[in-house]
Amino acid sequence: MKIKISKFDQVTPLKYPLIDGVSVKCRSHNISDDLARNCGPGSLDKSKVKGRIILCFNEIGGAAYKMKEIELKILEIIGQGGRGVILVQDDFKIESSTVLPGFLKFPCTFISSKDGNATLSYIRSNR
């Protein structure tokens, strides 16, 4: 009797935990919850970010962050080993043809504050 095993039989689905910025806040510095919620520079703990999808609000400074600040936020999470980013921002509309340069292989999406708050409630209820 012969048994054929394909490489598809050996694929294990990957699971990446979803977590918010405050939950992965860097504790060694005096970081505010607001800065961590917005995934501000230096606010996140690399060991907690690694392998996770991070929910980041985009509320600092009143008006929405401009494209450069969004790119820096994403780069920080990439550098810390994050597996994806969900950015919460009402003011920033992405056209279907708009792609953030250099981020073609990194999962990133924008959602409304209503959806962001619902996602945050989901994260907190599933700890």
Structural features, described:
With 127 residues, the chain is an alpha/beta fold. A four-stranded parallel sheet has the order 1-2-3-4, sandwiched between helices. The protein is 28% helix and 13% strand. The protein is globular and about 45 Å long. β2, α3 and β3 (84-88) form a beta-alpha-beta unit.
Describe the secondary-structure layout.
Layout lengths: L17 E3 L12 H5 L8 H4 L3 E5 L9 H13 L4 E5 L19 E4 L1 H13 L2
Parallel strand pairs: 1-2, 2-3, 3-4
Q: In short, what is this structure?
A:
The chain is an alpha/beta fold. The chain is built from four helices and four strands; from the N terminus they run E-H-H-E-H-E-E-H. It is globular and about 45 Å long.
- Would you identify the regions where 5 or more consecutive residues have pLDDT less than 50? none
Please trace the helix and strand order, writing H or E for each element: EHHEHEEH
Largest sheet: 4 strands, parallel
What is the mean predicted local confidence, pLDDT?
81
The percent range for strand residues is 5-15%
Count of separate DSSP helical elements: 4
Strand element count:
4
Gyration radius, to the nearest Å?
17 Å
As a percent range, the share of helical residues equals 25-40%
Taking the alpha carbons of the first and last residues, their distance comes to: 48 Å
Shape: globular
Spatially, the strands of the biggest sheet line up as 1-2-3-4
Q: Report the structural category.
A: alpha/beta
Keywords for this entry:
single chain; 4 helices; globular; 4 strands; 28% helix; 4-stranded parallel β-sheet; 127 residues
